[in-house]
Amino acid sequence: MGEGGSLDSIFAVSDLAQASIGAAGSAMAALQSEGGRAPSVFVDRDLANGWFMYSIRPQGWELPSPWDAVSGDYVCEDGWIRLHANAPRHRQAILAVLDVSGDRDEVAAAVRTWAGEDLESAVVGAHGAAAAMRSLDEWRRHPQGRAVAGEAVIAMTRTTTATPDERAAAGSERPLEGVRVLDLTRVLAGPVATRLLAGWGADVLRVDPPEWDEPAVVPEVTLGKRCARLDLRSERGRDVVLELLATADVLVHGYRPGALERLGLGDDDLAQVRPGLVDVSLDAYGWTGPWRGRRGFDSLVQMSSGIADAQRVATGAAAPVPLPVQALDHATGYLLAASVLAGLGLRRRESVGSQWRLSLARTAQVLVETGRDDRPGDATGRSLVIPEAPDAIEHTTWGEARRLAPPLQVEGAALRWALAARPLGTDEPAWLGR
Fold it and tell me: Taking the model in full, what pTM does it have?
């Protein structure tokens, strides 16, 4: 692990960045070293911090804001609440519950008349996304907090038997070349995971619904991937996905518990269509407990789990203080990638598929338990420095860009992305020829 500065937080965010990226590197080293010497792994701390922010550096153009005008923290009757309105349907749910237009001042005035947990429940009940601010102690006592505390950081279950010719190969400088990864994830952890896999040569095919877009992060996370669109609610969309899965090696998805079953893509369906599949997924609030199916995002989990409140108290701020980056998303993304690599290794050794489950809330607990420094500012005494991106140009659809150097070095397995970032829906939903 390389030395470097730290992101400004009372929590060890930079330690989490370096460790989670290192976990993915160690998983690749293990995949490469079976029967031989383990390759060396190095994580540059400053570059890890940079990749937890933005790795892309637009040249002559700008990324749009990642936040909808309604998204943000609001004062409610008994504290604070965060509303997440980036997706149009979530925005509509919030406005419908509050019975206001999209004017932020109107939203703020309406929120003040609600108790935080009541508004949270109402928005979630309307299929929106919101989180009342809780303290660390309140979260520990909360039924969902207790449930998450009992879960593994990475839960693995062996599934179906694979035939030997379906095992992932290893040992080349492009160790995932020929490995097919079906990516059904959206902002942000899943795309971070599959971006890393693409850097090691995997054929990553991202599939999104026809109406979905996330313009602020697509240039960041579609590096190395091909991107298609399908409506999984339609018969054709489901049939095409099943065809893709029939020859896939890995499925990465972020559907909430039970959602794939409702689409006809549940565990039994996957076992039948693709024995030996490495099935890796995440959700926001954990896989057990009363909130196991709740919509959530990094910023909401920070509010629920006490992180935003702890930083508010430590810094003397009046309002919630989030982490300086979407650390739960990024860290979980690298742990997802580590799970994929471990699953590929397991399949090669034992001819067995596997199912891996992670959550943002469980990663939040890792961060909280790692330790705190209640002094605001850089606890390391070394100023945060993000290295300049190399001069090499990435020719994206939006314009030329530069990309930070990879934060991770695994001996004999250099990260190199063959495709520039591209918009969603650019490609056909089909695999490259083997």
Answer: 0.95
